[in-house]
Design brief:
The chain contains 10 helices and 14 strands. By secondary structure, it is of the alpha/beta class. It has a 7-stranded mixed sheet with strand order 3-2-1-4-7-9-8, sandwiched between helices. A hairpin with a 2-residue loop joins strand 11 and strand 12. The two termini are 26 Å apart. The model has no long low-confidence stretch (mean pLDDT 87).
């Protein structure tokens, strides 16, 4: 077991204003399958300039535009986008893009789903219906047409497990047929400064003429626990439901750090606005929650986990925002995380803007790569 460093820095997330003030490092990024912009925000935190992004889901497009107003957003199906389209829009030539990145939708490969049962079929994905298990091929096509200096692609860990491993080998083979040196790593965000255990496979390709090897971050020797990022948890009475559900609502015109909607019901505590939609007490998953200790998962309800104040959060799934759905939950109260809390767990700034109802805001964060 890793020994935890005593002198680790405090957990800190910059605001959107602070991120926008970071000096440009001179390098540009083209983003595909951009979602609400988690990966793009990470590049911006590192000083990159995101010039072009692509997102097909309308709800995600809305959030992306709010938080990345200076980035051109292409809303077409990626199958309709060509590398030449991107280069013409940016006024660049083939080979001049520094980084091309993307996270092709990965539900077909997730170990929490039905995997190969729906390969090759059109299925529901967020607010649309589309085939998603072939989208890695579209990413590879665009890499070939744009010829960026470096490309980075991300997908679920399930891509290298079981039957899906064949897809992984084929994807890797296609990438290596291009003009790139390609390597992969399985990375866990909990050992990279994010208070969430989220394991993902990363592909990185460096164009051969650059004569450098792909580079991946080394795991830290510490992690951030929920108790460290939410110190107010220790002041909350353990177990049961808070006494003030629905006793207050947000007045019209009020803006909260969590982006909660005017008229929303819930209550304020040390962590900000707690939406009424987080309350699980009237559902079967809430009854099961009572039987779990901190850090335990349910044998009865797949994906129901009572998180622990002593560890990072378990993986946040896109579907977890439905109150009756089994997912990761608060460690000391019978509820889901609030959106304000979820932003911290997913490493998003407190003033990152989200739209829609609670469940949709959760989905945007659950689908995103932690910045």
């Amino acid at each position: 077991m890793r020994s935890l460093a005593i002198d680790k820095p405090p957990y800190h997330l910059p605001s959107m204003e602070e991120i926008r003030a970071i000096p440009w490092n001179g390098l540009n990024v083209v983003s595909t399958f951009s979602g609400c912009g988690g990966t793009c925000l990470g590049y911006e935190m590192a000083g990159y300039k995101v010039l072009w992004a692509s997102e097909f889901i309308p709800a995600a497009q809305e959030v992306y535009r709010l938080n990345h107003p200076d980035t051109f957003l292409d809303t077409r199906d990626i199958r309709q986008v060509t590398g030449q389209d991107i280069l013409i829009k940016l006024g660049l030539k083939q080979g001049e893009v520094d980084v091309l990145e993307g996270s092709p939708p990965c539900a077909s490969f997730s170990t929490s789903g039905r995997r190969e049962q729906f390969w090759g079929q059109v299925v529901s994905y967020s607010d649309t219906k589309q085939r998603v298990d072939d989208l890695f091929g579209e990413f590879i096509r665009i890499v070939d047409e744009v010829q960026p200096k470096v490309f980075v692609a991300e997908n679920v860990a399930g891509l290298v497990k079981g039957v899906a491993k064949g897809y992984f080998k084929e994807i890797l083979a296609q990438m290596r047929r291009l003009n790139y040196r390609v390597e992969t790593r399985l990375l866990n965000s909990a050992w990279l400064g994010v208070p969430q255990a989220r394991e993902r496979i990363f592909f990185q390709g460096v164009r051969n003429d650059i004569d450098k090897a792909p580079a991946f971050p080394k795991p830290l020797n510490y992690y951030y626990s929920l108790g460290e990022i939410f110190p107010y948890i220790k002041q909350v009475k353990k177990g049961g439901k808070p006494n003030n559900w629905g006793r207050s609502s947000i007045p019209s015109g009020t803006i909260t750090q969590s982006g909660a909607r005017a008229g929303a019901t819930g209550y304020f505590d040390g962590g900000g606005w707690i939406e009424a939609e987080t309350d699980m007490t009237r559902y079967a998953v809430g009854t099961e929650w009572d039987n779990l200790k901190q850090g335990e998962g349910s044998d009865k309800y797949h994906n129901l986990v009572r998180s622990s104040t002593y560890r990072p959060s378990p993986t946040v799934s896109a579907s977890g925002g439905s109150t009756s759905t089994a997912s990761v939950t608060h460690p000391t109260e019978k509820r889901k995380f609030s959106i304000a809390e979820l932003k911290q767990v997913c490493s998003f700034p407190h003033d990152f803007q989200l739209t829609g109802k609670f469940e949709k805001q959760w989905e945007r964060l659950g689908r995103a790569v932690p910045p």
